[in-house]
Amino acid sequence: MSDTSPFDQGRTGPARADALMQELRSALEPSEKLLWSGFPAQGVRLAAQDAFLIPFSLLWGGFVIVWEAIALRTAPFPAGLFGIPFVLVGLHMIAGRFVVDAMSRARMVYAVTDRRVVILSGLFARNLRSLELLGLGETNSSEKPDGSGTITFGAVNPFTALRGWPGLSRANTSPTFEGIARVRDVLKIIRDAQRAASRGADS
Fold it and tell me: What is the CA radius of gyration of the chain?
């Protein structure tokens, strides 16, 4: 796929990429021009924070599982079932959050148009986040040696890296193009579109 194409599936696009692109196009206004679209990296991904979070989740989850096993053997029914919700949370912290995160990214698509930045996401209920180009403000990016990376719109939220953590959804974190291919090229597209939008507003 050429660098000039507005459709960038990255290194490995999701299985339902065509359906996501169709959903994205239907969310755009008739006169809106699509400059770039792409997907986050697919599959299970680890963040730097997982070096702490994985041992913590194993310790916490292991404790509640052992505690609940003892309770089921010693406590009268139904009191012994009190710890089941904590066990489920522990299992989610250990492994479930990675599965939920991977499934969420498989239903996510990003876009840059001549008017706005668009993030279409949601595992069950679909969520469309739009940021007008003229109001983007602070933009932060990080790049890996292979050219992939992440673009964050607005101040970097420290909770963004806790994707999949219980009680924390992407809707509550900074809008982000996460794990996209050729991040530097995408950032240039955004900045060029901002300049064009600014000239149009001044004319």
Answer: 21
